[in-house]
Write a structure and sequence with these properties.
Elements lengths: L15 H17 L7 E7 L4 E5 L12 H12 L4 E8 L10 E2 L4 H10 L4 E4 L5 E4 H4 L17
Parallel strand pairs: 3-5
Antiparallel strand pairs: 1-2, 1-3, 3-4, 5-6
The chain binds zinc ion.
Length: 155
Amino acid sequence: MSGRIVPDPAHACAQRAAKDLVTAAFQAIRGRYVQDRHQIAAAVLDADGRVHLGLHLDAMVGRAAVCAEAGAVSAARLATDAELIAVAAVRYPKPTEPALARIVPPCGLCRELLLDHAPRLDVVVPDTPARLVALTALLPHKYLGTKWPMPVSPT
Ligand SMILES: [Zn+2]
């Protein structure tokens, strides 16, 4: 790290659960940031109160990159079958950018992926203040393919 101070963007959150997830994601990316390799970390909360972290993996071929949210869901699924109930992702600034970490909403691919694996997931979005919203509100009319008839829904 450069030694510059980058504040935790959790201060922008009004809700306790959102703050905690943002802080977890921020701490993860602050510790693992590598320019052009790892810019975003995500934190997923399960119904048992555990937090699972994921790290963005950039790639020389852009489409081979893996989003932090996918990594967090994978880590969660390795650890537990518990329902996933909330997620936050934080992008760490490049050295050439202002020292502001930002809460980032999931990209379109991640919205699909997250809904496939966590149909009741809430997502921290960078409104003012940042807040949790239902992922279904961010992706109405989700794609439903033929791999399974309905989104997997924990009982
Ligand atoms: Zn994504």
